[in-house]
Amino acid sequence: MLQVKNLITLLNRNEDWILSRILYYAREFNHSIYSTLINHSWRQTVSGFSQIISQFEFKNTEGLSHEKYSNFEENKFQGLAREEASRCLDRGIAPQVFMALLKIIRNILNELVQDSRINSSEKNKYNNFLYSCFDNFEIAYIESYYKLQTVFAHSEIKKEPRNELKKFKTIYDNLPTPLLIIDSFHKIVRYNKEAENTFPFLVSGKNNSLNGSIQFEGGDTLSTKIDEFFISEQKDTSIEATLNYNNKTGYFLVNFRKYNLSDHIMVCFLDLTKWKQVETNLRNAKVKAENSDKLKTTFLANMSHEIRTPMNAIVGFAELLSMSNPSKEEREEYLNLIKKSSNDLLTIIEDVIDIAKIESQQLKIVHKNLKLYDLFSDLKRIYDEILYKHDKTNIKLTLRIPEAEKNLIIHTDPKRLKQVLSNLIGNAIKFTEEGHIEFGYKLAENKIVYFYVKDTGIGIPKEMQTKIFNRFIQVEESFDKNINGTGLGLAISKNIINLMGGNIWVSSKPAKGSNFYFYLPYLKAIQHTVLKSPVDLIRNENLDLSNYTILVAEDEEANFFFLKESLKKTGINIIRATNGLEAINLAENTNNIDLILMDIKMPEVNGIEASRYISHIKPNLPIVAQTAFAMDNDKKTCLDAGCFDYISKPIKRDKLIDIIIKALKSREVDYHKSISH
């Protein structure tokens, strides 16, 4: 049962807030309409709603059942609707504008109910009740609006006194709705300005008669409808229909009304085209939002599973290492599983970051020369190992490349191309239990390079073959399938291929397998001179950096401990700063620092500001930014602040040492240059 008393209290307490929100949303209308609305008595409208709804509390003190409010009598709203229609006519507010504002009030009251401290069940009841009220009020308003228009036209036929007739004539001519007064011979006795603007062809002839140019959907003309209405016993009726006129199509509410003292009919046309379009757009947006919400809910549930799976292995085996006394073989196995799970987790995070880059249009394509055969051979080796490790040796992986194209070099983005191929081959392995997987490329007419990945896996149903390239979509979403994945790989691949100037598609049959194809424009390799490094960057386990001192600016204890342990075998001397201000002071007052590892997010002074200051006072001191921010513009921000290089977290030891060696060698080169000058 619905307690109307609580709803009335909620509306009355928040009346001023409701009115302020109405005017806030109404600002979207043009200035003249907005000014008129400010003078319109919306307080009476809101109070009127409260008074009508409160009548039910007196009659139904026990509450209001669903059947009672769903069959709400529309005549309860006729008085309020008549007042609103009269005020709209006096102030020149078009009915379409008023109806649009009713939609706004609906949303405001829904917002009020949703934000109130009421349980979900009661909120749904209140919203259903209010929607029923609004539906009946809109019907009553449209009828009242037409009846008032009829009064104006009827007064003219009855030959009212001159001053009254002049008043009605002025109102009639300036009504924003097309009006026609037609006799039994289809002659147009009178029309207003809006009718002339909407249907100019109706009044172009001397006899001002209907000529069949207005047709209802289905073939009936306006003349036919008028004849049917003339012989009926009805005094007025309304038809919602699509009208075809003047090579246009519009959706109208057409009202016919007879006069008691004459054989005239007044026809009113309320243009609902925009209103209907808004309604359609809202309906489509609602469906789209619901589908999107469903997809995101599924995605979040799947993402939770995907993240927890590697995290379970990482936490579990780390706990086993700390609690038990494993043998050397067990220790290596545990560590390998932790590394694998960490890489799986990083892949998931990188997929989410790539989707974020794509949506914010920050995914960049970096073209370089690439020998395709080298890339494909590398992928063949990697995935042969994966098949072996996952005990899938019953699947044969074949690389097929024309002999003449094994030396093909193209100008493309190697990293992104490898990412796409890895996604496709990884999916093929994931969805294939036995059989074979084949991949390769072919140059077509020196203009396009075609790539493909074929498998004999489970296949893809026809209805899913276009959807799988959308975000969060997976063919298999069942709990009893041992198939992992975020549902982002193909969406990322499609966007990457599109950014590189190509396209991707699939051909598949369930239980037969899938063939994925994509192409890229053939950009010939760019010839350039390769500059040799002054010192070969050779890294090995016996690397000795004991003559160098590094300043590590890192506020997180665990991160600093990792960096210290990673560099322990090199013998490098480490000084630590726990915030940006301390890093500045140490760099300024310590002369033997050869390199700075600068965390970007730190207290006191952040890493960007600290790098900018240090690079200004000591331009030859290399700074390597190390940060969890991994977007392309983050790297640019660091380099613009004076950093020599950039490494994103999670940091891999080999890459860290490579960058440190590179930075130290560059410092030596700069030092020797300064001496020679």
List keywords for this structure.
677 residues; elongated; alpha/beta; 6-stranded antiparallel β-sheet; Beta-Lactamase; disordered C terminus; Helix Hairpins
Explain the overall architecture.
- The protein has 677 residues and is an alpha/beta fold.
- Helix content is 51%, strand content 16%.
- It has helices at 4-13, 15-25, 31-39, 42-59, 66-70, 78-91, 95-115, 120-157, 162-174, 193-198, 222-231, 273-323, 328-359, 372-389, 414-430, 489-499, 557-566, 580-589, 607-617, 632-640, 653-676; strands at residues 179-182, 188-191, 215-216, 236-245, 248-258, 265-271, 368-371, 395-400, 409-412, 435-444, 448-455, 503-509, 513-521, 549-553, 573-577, 595-599, 623-627, 645-648.
- Strand 5 (248-258) and strand 6 form a beta hairpin.
- The longest helix is centred in the middle third of the chain and has 51 residues, at 273-323.
- The model is unreliable at 57-74, 156-162, 477-482, 529-540 and 671-677 (pLDDT under 50).
Overview in brief:
By secondary structure, this protein is α/β, with parallel strands linked by helices. Helix content is 51%, strand content 16%.
Major beta sheet, specifics?
6 strands, antiparallel
- Percent strand equals 15-25%
Rg computed from alpha carbons, rounded to a whole number of angstroms: 38 Å
CATH architecture of the largest domain: 2-Layer Sandwich
Count of the separate structural domains: 5
What oligomeric arrangement do these chains adopt?
single chain
What is the count of helical runs?
21
State the end-to-end CA separation. Answer: 92 Å
